[in-house]
Design brief:
Length: about 400
């Protein structure tokens, strides 16, 4: 029974990470960047997948062997550092969640024709219901898996319907004709930046899967999470590329919906609604759960009332969207900000991997540490270049 429970938690953690990444911003970014880069966007996706795997393996392993959450690890390295990182991640998580709530409303509007505000409130209610269940963790795992499978099936249908130029996509994935640093930073930030990279690791910790003995399982779960998110990204890229290659006009107001509709007609539009709703509601759950996990160790009452605090986080996100709305570029900007935060959080975890007071006698693989340092260097360089361009 315990083995089955562990397997459920491992798969659930992978899907929680993946579906946290696959939100409205993820869908919008993929479509918009395919429009601007064409088949060369495949190279950006490949680069981001390599970076994502390196980030996840380093961070999840350190969390598992230390048996501590990221903020506690950071505070052990330098008092106050964990609190600073928590503040940054909660800010990013809230920004993403406002967009997630809006995206869920858009999904229900496409599916059933209801008002976006009404749809967002219904979606928030469904997400809150997950955390009202006694076995909230298990319910969250199952729900993330179900929504993940629905998204994959729907996008496969649309990708096939759009008839993408596969040969060109493969060629430009290796030999791109266009390249943009902002897209790489935004993609990495939107997939493993901010709260997203810690969602699965913290979930495994809460499920009791930790310690050196659990490392093989933890590593498999991390790679599975990236694989699911990457599969959805690739399929959506191919669907968008197929539409673009036919010189069809994509609606800039709602590019992803436009791609689905142009590729598969009215069925495609309904499938867009399903994918957008599934992506958004799982991201609402993942964002709220992970953001709160960054503060629950700061006070015993937060940990005791964790589900209530998560519900409050969802309610705040919903109220802000309903009464204030969100800027059109919010999700793209939030992804980019998370990309800037990533080198900091990854550096902290790499330093922690060699502190015996944090990881005990554990020996972090040298190749993984070198991989992580290369990612820090590359992401820092790209982030600095983007910042300079923005300021000049």
């Amino acid at each position: 029974m315990k083995q089955i429970s562990n397997r459920t938690a491992l798969v659930g953690a992978a899907f929680l990470m993946a579906t946290s990444a696959i939100g409205p911003g993820f869908l919008t970014q993929t479509t918009v960047f395919t429009q601007s880069l064409g088949a060369s966007f495949g190279f950006v996706i490949l680069t981001s997948i390599i970076i994502d795997i390196g980030v996840q393996l380093n961070i999840w392993r350190v969390i598992a062997v230390s048996e501590k959450r990221a903020q506690d690890i950071a505070n052990m390295l330098m008092p106050g550092l964990g609190s600073l990182i928590s503040a940054l991640i909660i800010f990013g998580g809230l920004a993403f969640n406002i967009g997630n709530v809006a995206g869920a409303g858009l999904g229900l509007q496409a599916l059933f024709g209801i008002d976006v505000i009404t749809g967002s409130v219904i979606s928030a209610g469904i997400a809150i219901a997950i955390f009202l269940i006694k076995e909230a963790g298990r319910a969250m795992d199952r729900f993330a898996q179900l929504m993940g499978f629905l998204m994959i099936i729907a996008i496969i249908y649309v990708a096939i319907s759009s008839v993408p130029p596969l040969g060109e996509a493969v060629l430009r994935t290796v030999l791109p004709t266009k390249l943009d640093l902002v897209t790489i930073i935004t993609l990495v930030g939107g997939t493993v930046g901010g709260y997203i990279t810690f969602s699965g690791g913290h979930r495994l910790l809460d499920a009791g899967i930790k310690g050196t003995a659990a490392l093989p399982q933890v590593s498999r779960s991390a790679v599975m999470g990236i694989s699911v998110a990457s599969l959805v990204r690739i399929l959506l890229f191919l669907a968008s590329l197929g539409v673009i290659s036919q010189n069809l006009l994509i609606d800039e107001g709602n590019p992803t919906a436009s791609v689905f509709q142009l590729a598969a007609g009215n069925i495609g539009y309904k499938l867009f609604g399903l994918v957008m709703f599934a992506a958004a509601i799982t991201s609402i759950i993942g964002s709220a759960y992970t953001s709160v996990s960054f503060i629950k160790s700061f006070h015993k009452k937060i940990e005791e009332q964790e589900n209530k605090v998560i519900i409050a986080f969802i309610l705040v996100s919903t109220v802000i969207f309903v009464f204030v709305g969100k800027p059109v570029s919010l999700l793209i900007v939030a992804g980019a900000i998370n990309g800037f935060i990533l080198p900091v959080t990854l550096t902290v975890m790499l330093l922690a991997a060699y502190q015996s007071k944090i990881v005990g006698s554990y020996k972090h693989p040298k190749w993984l540490a070198v991989f992580g340092l290369l990612i820090v260097a590359v992401m820092t360089y790209m982030s600095a270049n983007v910042l300079i361009r923005m300021l000049v």
